Task: structure prediction
Amino acid sequence: AFILSGLAGMLLAPFAAPNIMAMSLTGLSYPEYLLWGAGPYLIVMLGTCVFLTFWINKKAQKDQNGEKYEISEAEKDISSPPTKKEKVATIAFIVSFAACIAYAVAARQGMAFVIFVLPFLAFIVAVFSRMSVNKACESFYTGCKNTVSVFIICVLYQLLVDVVNAAGGFEALSEVFIGLVGSSPSKTVVMLMGTIVGAFGINGGAAAQMQIIHELFMPMIEQNGLGMGMWSIVLVAGSYVTSVIYPNATVLAPMGIAQSKDFKNMMLCMWISSAVILAFCILYSFVMPMIFLKRPIKTDIRPFLSPTGP
Result:
């Protein structure tokens, strides 16, 4: 639920980097992008999310060795009112957090700033709640101990991805797919190959993946006049499926938040959701070009391909 609904939220955000990139590459407005690309993908993904959430929960309850969640005594006792010290610490946290976000946006800070923010906010809370040094360190460790292993796995997995990229593994896979297309592919074939190559053959951030997919298939798009509305769903599927089909931070971080170690069932859900979404994209690739065969949507993409940017 965390992963798929979080991705759905990104698809709806008009200022999310992948959406800005997709609209820049295709020339679609935000409503058009939702109508043709993000919207259909979003509906299928949320429907799959609801089904998988209830299915995996029922599956876990039947498994004697499945994860069991118990509410602690502190979580049960929610009736006691907050003390003045707790209120002050909460206000200090909110103000500091808002200031960090404002600075990060204004100064365009990256992931390195996030690593600074977490200890900084812990320090703010410790000071305003008048914790001792030992108590603050103990509380900080208690809060992060469930995600330390996830952080180490993410670092090691990124190392694996970097090695595959450096060796040209993803590029080689892309070339294999493209070699199967032929010299004059149809609209359906271009959409299918763009989705598959993006999902399995290109790894990286969603916005970067979209740009690579777009540039890779540009000659074919111009050759058969594929509408940018239909192409937008290829950019979405080709980048978002990658984020869940491989074990990476997108999958592992929500597991740490949920205090879950059931990696097997998590990946099973991600593969099922990816299979459903890809099946929908295949159907979309066959049906939509037939409907709009004589009415291409924004086929002139040259104004959006300036070397200086969109």
In short: The longest helix spans residues 133-166. Residues 294-310 have pLDDT under 50 and may be disordered. The chain is about 75% helix and 0% strand.
